[in-house]
Amino acid sequence: MFIQLTDEYLLGVQVIDEQHRQLCGWINTLHDHLSQKLSTQEITDTLNNLSDYTQEHFSFEEKTMHQAGYPEFALHIKEHRTFLVKIEELMDEYLLLDEEDLEPFANKLTAYLKEWILHHIMEEDMKIRDVLQNSAKSE
Ligand SMILES: [Fe+2]
Question: Could you tell me the distance, in angstroms and rounded to a whole number, from the CA of residue 94 to the centre of ligand 1?
Fold first, then answer.
């Protein structure tokens, strides 16, 4: 498997952990579809699914952070926005590719997604863990 979310990546907030798993699942699916050299339409569909799911997850995470009164809320949202813009750019880039550029692009794309998501969970989402766990307890 391309990305495997090991225990060290778990926040202990079940719903968010489950969403992170699904998000990595979409990146794994994209990785598989690119390696299998599926059609442009199929890859575009997968990219759209990944992008849709990412937006859904970010909205949920942001709502949860906001409700819990997380102090670095604005900064965290900015990271999410930057990632979504980057996905859009990469999707546009994909559609303009020549056949011979497909493989290096696929490698660059999946490496970027993997690095971003693992780094973001470990460095940023982990910061909200305590705030979220406390607010989950008081619910
Ligand atoms: Fe996040």
Answer: 25
At residue 64, the pLDDT reads 92
What pTM did the predictor assign?
A: 0.93
CATH of the domain at 44: 1.20.120.50
- pLDDT tens readout for residues 79-116: 999 999 999 999 999 999 999 999 999 999 999 999 99
DSSP3 helix / strand / coil % (the chain, rounded to 5): 85, 0, 15
Query: Domain limits at 82?
Result: 11-137
As for how many domains the chain has, the answer is: 1
Q: Which residues surround ligand 1, an ion (CB under 5 A)?
A: 61, 125
Q: What is the CA(108)–ligand 1 centre distance, in A?
A: 22
- Give the pair of three-digit tokens for residue 139: 């619910």
For residue 67, is it within any domain?
A: yes
Contacts of 110 (CB under 8 A, 6+ apart): 2, 27, 30, 31, 34
In a domain, 5, yes or no: no
Question: If you measure from the C-alpha of residue 100 to the centroid of ligand 1, how many angstroms do you get, rounded to a whole number?
Answer: 35
